[in-house]
Write a structure and sequence with these properties.
By secondary structure, this protein is mainly alpha-helical. The chain has 6 domains: 184 residues, no CATH class; 56 residues; 98 residues; 126 residues; 210 residues; 55 residues. The protein contains 48 helices and 7 strands. The strands form 2 sheets. The chain has a 5-stranded parallel sheet, with helices on both faces. The chain has a two-stranded antiparallel sheet with strand order 6-7. One of its GO terms (cellular component) is cytoplasm. This is AAA family ATPase. Keywords: ATP-binding, Nucleotide-binding. It comes from Streptomyces griseoaurantiacus.
Length: 941
Amino acid sequence: MGRESEKPGRARPTPLVGREDLLAGARDQLDRGGSVLVHGPAGIGKSAVLRALAAEHAATAHTVLRCSATESESHLPFLALADLLGLVAADVADRLPAAQRTALESALTGRGESTLERDGLALRLAVLSTLRALAARGPVLIVADDLQWLDPASTELLGFAARRLGDMPIRMLCAARTGSDPRGPEHDRFLRATPPDTLAVRVGPLSRAQTAELLARRGFGALPRSTVRDIHRTSGGNPLFALELGRALAENPVPPGPGEPLPVPTSLRALVLNRLEALSAEARRTLLVASAGARPTTALLHAAGRENAEAEIARAAALGLLVTDRDSPGVRFTHPLISAALYAEADPEERRSAHAALSTAASDPIERARHLALATEGTDPRVAERLGEAAAAARERGAPSVAAGLGLLAARHTPPDAEPGPSVWRLQAAEDALIAGETDLARDLARQVLADASAPAERVRAWIVVIESAGHALGEVDAAYPQALADAGEDPRLLALVHYQLAWRATIYEGDFAEARQEAARAASLAERAGDRRTELMALAFQAQAETLMGHPDAPATIKRAMREPQDPRVACDHNGVGAARFRWLIMSDRLAEARTTISALLREVRRRGMVESEVHFLRGLAETELRAGHCARALDLARESLRLARDTGIGQAAAAMFTSLAEAAGGDVERAGALAREAVSRAEDHGDQVYLSRALGALGHAQLVAGDAAGAVRSLRRVRDLEEQLGVTDPARGRWHGDLAEALVRVGEPAEAQRLVDVTRVRASALGRESVLAVLDRAEALARAARGDVDGAVRQLSSARDRLGRLGYGLEEARAVYALAGLRGRRPGAASYEEAARLFRRCRAVPWLRQAEAQPVAEPGTPTAVRAGASPGAEALGGLAATERQVAALVMEGATNREIAARLFISVKTVEATLTRVYRKLGIRSRVDIVRLAAARRAE
């Protein structure tokens, strides 16, 4: 407990991982003078949220009262009350009636026999009077952690006072432990100890990406992604559990093997297993069998020999270990950690016995094979064979991660001299892990194969996994290429594999599309000679992609070659396969409807097959299609989904950040667009990735243009121009940055350079038939014309560009043309209006552009837009504000906070603050209070 004087600023602690939205809602409530109850299960981070909020808002309180209860002290009466009021009661004691003062002193000091039964009314009124006296001196903040352990007497007194605080400047910030069920009503009883308008905020689990960020912040960032995935699954997203598991893994020199549980530290075992003592030995065995099963049911437990499963499950559910559902036969632990701790607590023989029972009870052949392997000690060729068959079945079902785990078990049960040997199983597991997006596991397994294998085919395949697991950071594995070529020898099939990878190296690492095309063509020729249709198709698809980006005339013919029969189904839907090449050609050729159909079908197929890397790419491709069509909200949702998946898997993060930046600039937040673009630039530079560096700089330049930083856009987009010249990219439909650069050049006063850029780009676009690019170039050229004084010509050219973009289905680009036309209205009345541009931006849900259109003055040219200097702001002054400024001012008049205004208008708090600054300047006032006074004056009129 303590008291603090008012401070000028608000302290902001280190940001909490994954709690931004939760904190924002709680801050709004506290800013309005309300109270907050933070609740959730043990270890979820309630106290961390409480501390963060308390640290921020303590500076705004004159008095801060604190208490934090513990279970061991919850039987001591008035202990929490003493923590809260013990050091401040004396300061206001003279304001309390004698009876109240005596009762309170007795309760706080323990000197006397004060009880709720004897002095109930006096004590209740004493607490209320004390809080009122403190509030009379200034705002009071009450911070109470672990409400569930408050002694009943303190809880009753605090609740009595809280229900009677009324309009007093007293806020309560409390935290309480509630159950794992988010729908549970437990927090209702804690709300009775807080004011009636208290906001109850539930703290939920972290996502996998947030768990990874938390572990990295606490020094466990070196853990493999597959391990982080297991930690997230086992912890259920609980921060405390995740950190304890991460610490146990970091301290364990030997990582868990395939099928082995995570090491659950003693602290967590004690936390979740103490309730097991109330179960019989047979019931604990039943729960062990359930923990060993993938999807345990009552029927499965019966088949595994657990005759009394129903009664034992009911008993475990009563103890809070299991969740039962009348409508579902499944057996579910209340938290994944209970299952993991139970399994880890069992000795090896008990685990093998449970798996042996499940190996015959499970109906799924994949599950039966897995349980058989975990029940078997040592090597066994028959078990390895069954595991190989199960891995193939999992692969066919679209579960490559499961297939990888089964392959590892097969390698463990394969004798060293068997055929196929352990390396074959590890290699297949590595390739499955790569497909599943578990790149770190794939790389580690490939390294193991290279350490043991001598067969050229195995070694070359392993080198390919090492290279592909590096993603775009090919500089880190540059030494692998000559070694792979040496292992390939003169074998055309193996050489084709290596030259296909060299084509990627030439593109990403060297930034040379011409060399990349040659390497891809060489790989296709070698694969055709070796009869390896799969590699031939991949190489032809790559060649087609390179030719498309280069504007090479052979691109359509190469795509046709790649689409000839026979086809390989996996290549057809691979993100580097012919389907992806055809999609890229379609979208660059302005065939948006066909592009959407193609990419949607590819996305469905890779999801069915569990091809995570391809899913990341195709989500981004579908987002690109929607963005071109002007469906900005849909594009933003898809781009964000792609980015989340990329961050979770570590696959294609630069590309995902780059395109999400474009989507944010079109339909989201411009500041976030700039941050994502800079992240993409940084990642591409770190990896030496010239291809995505140019794309990332293009996204950055676009974000800068939308944000109004024309000079920054010119700097970024000039770099893109230089990089694409080095890469040999001549097709302007690849990055579509040319119109943005020309527009930015006009804005900074360089219309001549803008015109030269338009002239050069138009020649290339005309030769390739890129109609949408030509229309955008016309829009940019019209701005250059207007800058030179040819307003009539500019209007004609913009009108034509608008119509063509509308016919092509490029909704956002059409709206931008109308917006440019509206900018010429003052110089040629009737050209267009900002209202029309706003309507089109609203249809596209292009939020940043819509804000720009609405911010423009709505009055006719020549109408004053600000109050005359020295004039008192009257009602007529609001007419001179832009649309967004009027909306913000109106909400201020209603009493809304900046955060509430931001939420209602879908803008950032910073934008609200900047808009208010403009409103103050235009109205000749200084603060929000003056706006409220203006509102009162209008009502009086």
